[in-house]
Write a structure and sequence with these properties.
Layout lengths: L1 H4 L16 H16 L4 E9 L2 E10 L3 E8 L2 E8 L2 E5 L4 E3 L2 H21 E12 L2 E11 L5 E10 L4 E11 L2 E11 L16
Antiparallel strand pairs: 1-2, 1-11, 2-3, 3-4, 4-5, 5-6, 7-8, 8-9, 9-10, 10-11
């Protein structure tokens, strides 16, 4: 489910510039997850390539849990808005309130990722400075492995040394036999607001 993938936003970490031991690096990554999630309203834009398909996912988040996601694939856009425990969906035919079971599942995934990540993250490496397209970042790498070998990813995180917040995340993933690559950028914008959409009453 594409919306679950947004939980990658929680993998941000801010670490020292010099390499440290993998165990210590993982501890630092986990300590900074909550900080990155609570840095204020932010927008991520992910360009995903999987099975020769290109998917664009734009997610606006207002901590702790409100979000507005737009997923575009095959010239069609689907949206989801979550405010509190209520979720609305729009598949191009107008907004509708998600069934309680769907809303509960989305809320559960959003909250549970914060406790799941420590069990999935491994092989954390804290790197030094790297210049990409004229900008200097502090770069870290780590892997994520789902139990049973069903899915895994190799991740490269680029951190802005001035703000000490993530600027870019590159994920090379595998789910079953499908491979994917995602390049996600972060923008922190205090003006972002998430509000309930206008829902049309069902036609009689």
């Amino acid at each position: 489910m594409i919306r679950i993938s947004m939980a990658a936003v929680g993998l941000a970490s801010i670490l020292a510039a010099q390499p440290v031991a993998a165990a210590e690096c993982k501890e630092d990554i986990m300590a900074m997850i909550d900080r990155s999630l609570m840095a204020g309203p932010y927008r991520t834009t992910a360009e995903v390539t999987a099975n020769n398909r290109k998917i664009t996912i734009v997610n606006e988040s207002v901590p702790p849990d409100d979000m507005h996601t737009r997923t575009t694939a095959d010239n069609a856009t689907k949206e989801m808005i979550k405010v509190g425990d209520t979720v609305w969906l729009n598949d191009g035919q107008g907004w509708r309130t998600a069934p309680p079971a769907v809303a509960a599942r989305i809320a559960e995934v959003t909250k549970s990722m914060r406790t799941m990540v420590p069990n999935l993250l491994n092989d954390a490496q804290c790197g030094g400075a790297q210049t990409v397209e004229g900008r200097t970042y502090t770069v870290y790498t780590y892997k994520m492995d789902v139990p049973g070998g069903k899915a895994s990813s190799s991740n490269t995180l680029y951190v802005d040394p001035a703000s000490r917040l993530p600027a870019k995340l590159v994920v090379d993933g595998r789910s079953g036999q499908m491979k994917s690559r995602s390049e996600m950028s972060y923008v922190y914008d205090a003006s972002i607001k998430i509000e309930p959409p206008s829902v049309e009453a069902p036609k009689q």
